[in-house]
Amino acid sequence: MSDTPVTVLGLGAMGTALACALLKAGFRTTVWNRTAAKAEALAGEGARHAATVAEAVEASPLVVVCLLDHDSVHDTLAPVAGALSGKAVTNLTSGKPRQARELAAWAADRGVDYLDGGIMAVPPMIATPAAFILYSGPRDVFETHRAALDAMARSEYLGEDVGLASLYDIALLSAMYGMFAGILHAHALIRSEDIKAADFAPMLGSWLNGMSGAATGVAARIDQGDYAQGVVSNLAMQEAGFHHLLETAEEQGVSPELLAPLAPLMTRRVADGHGHEDLSGLVELLRTRA
Ligand code: FVH
């Protein structure tokens, strides 16, 4: 059994998976949930079930929070601020960078060490090699509690700026939803000819795997602000081809609405004289703040 007790606040699907992982790794784990019945199964596996948030916070120097949203975190922690003083809170609830910074300031005013986190996994992935959790905030707090954090998933520490974990989390999820938009559109096209999705899926997966390598080249062009370097498929050509994608969707009886927002950006960039460049230059049109 590990020396450091850990408290988990929130036993939804994710909080339960986190608490299970801590128990399996040998941490003395105290759990609390608003709906107490959800703690029963974990108590059967060795968790200590705290009846109140205050009792749960009292039990451990590290408090892992995994609740629905920012408001539920604030509403849960505010009444026990005094008991949290001198302890570390690791908040794994999804949120925005601004909210992480607000909570960190709130915690600092009360003598609470605050780490923000972003879970890059679904509950069944917790404590498997596929899962990782992003952290930002004071490095010494991260290092002090690293053993417990590593028991839940591979830890990726991003830096002292507490807003970084949620920024990376949201960036990664945004990329994922963009990919899902493409996958759904592709399946809608295939189904328009009554082809089974399962017959198409292996080819789609192979294509997406191959294309994922482009992320590195895109990053190099963005960092250098040079979208003309090493261009393989120039934007003018892609812009012309992209209209065929949208027209084909219409002709096949498929709504192009998931893909359509890209077209005016491509057209604008070409009209601005960047047709010889790479698609990655569209990032210049997305910034709305200097
Ligand atoms: N599940 C997932 O796939 C994703 C993966 C990435 C990270 N997210 C985030 O993790 C947070 C928790 O997600 P979850 O899956 O555990 O969510 P639920 O199963 O819906 O459980 C929600 C828990 O929050 C409690 N809760 C809700 N409102 C309040 C409140 N006002 N005061 C106190 N607790 C509250 C709820 O309690 P109860 O309904 O059981 O009483 C659950 O414990 C989330 O940020 C995801 O975005 C998961």
Automatic annotation (TrEMBL):
Limits of the 6-phosphogluconate dehydrogenase NADP-binding domain: 6-155
Q: Which residues cross the membrane?
A: 6-27
Q: Which InterPro entries match?
A: 6-PGluconate_DH-like_C_sf, 6PGD_dom2, 6PGDH_NADP-bd, HIBADH-related, HIBADH-related_NP60_sf, NAD(P)-bd_dom_sf, RedAm-like_C
For this UniProt record, the keywords arranged alphabetically read as follows: Membrane, Oxidoreductase, Transmembrane, Transmembrane helix
Keyword Oxidoreductase applies = yes
Boundaries of every NADPH-dependent reductive aminase-like C-terminal domain copy: 161-287
Q: Which domain of life is it from?
A: Bacteria
* Family indicated by similarity: Belongs to the HIBADH-related family.
UniProt name for this protein: NAD(P)-binding domain-containing protein
Q: Where does this protein come from, organism-wise? A: Streptomyces lonegramiae
